[in-house]
Amino acid sequence: MKVKNLKANCFKYLEESSKDLLTQKIIFAISELTAEKMGPVKLSEIAHVAIGESDKSKQDLVRLTLEKSLLKMRPS
């Protein structure tokens, strides 16, 4: 299976003002780490790449951001 690396231009439709938002940093961190490892990544690794720290509070922040803004909510 061939996998292409994600570059910044893959996200060209995101607004310029959003480039420093945590959500976008998390997206880039996940794409970079997944491309490097070619497999699953840990929450601590995502936090370290996106925020620069991987302590428990930063991991919680990443987890909450993923839950609230990146994962689709199921209809009840």
UniProtKB/TrEMBL annotation:
Source lineage: Archaea, Nitrososphaerota, Nitrososphaeria, Nitrosopumilales, Nitrosopumilaceae
Q: Which domain of life is it from?
A: Archaea
Which protein are we looking at? Uncharacterized protein
Q: Where does this protein come from, organism-wise?
A: Candidatus Nitrosopumilus salarius BD31
